[in-house]
Amino acid sequence: MALSKLDNLYRQVILDHSSHPHHHGTLDTKDHQIEMNNPTCGDVIHLELELEDDRIKNIAFSGNGCSISTASASMMTDAVLGKDLDEVQHLATDFSKLVQGKDVEDLDGLGDAAMLGGVAKFPARIKCATLAWKALEKALQDPETGIGESGYIHNITEE
């Protein structure tokens, strides 16, 4: 069965983000960092954030993951960079709904991440797609992810 041109475009964008992820690496200055993993497939993400005036001033991620996990993290960093924390929460909520096959408020706001809506057809891949977004939400909600004198990293396992 041949893929439609749109399906080919979506696959190409996902493969590009996976092969050449945006904002991949570490930050020199960070306010929050978190490490999370998906034990069902072994994906691991380390996410670092620098905030300024309740906005994401800078963001970076590292770790190991499948193509969906890596592409989603890359797309997420593009979507949230420069946004205020309320906008970030709305985008994270919309993305979670999207990959579950539900309607979302602001599909355009998700940028390239909107192309991961097809993951809803593959329930086993939903955790791969949402790992970076869950890490972002947890890092912003949990005061223990803040960087103190010890440089504490909050490790959790998403089940």
Automatic annotation (TrEMBL):
This is NifU family SUF system FeS assembly protein. The lineage of its organism: Bacteria, Bacillati, Bacillota, Bacilli, Lactobacillales. One of its GO terms (biological process) is iron-sulfur cluster assembly. Belongs to the NifU family. It comes from Enterococcus sulfureus ATCC 49903. GO terms for molecular function: iron ion binding; iron-sulfur cluster binding. SUPFAM superfamilies: SufE/NifU. NCBIfam families: SUF_scaf_2 (TIGR01994). It holds the Pfam family NifU_N. Residues 10-128 form the NIF system FeS cluster assembly NifU N-terminal domain.
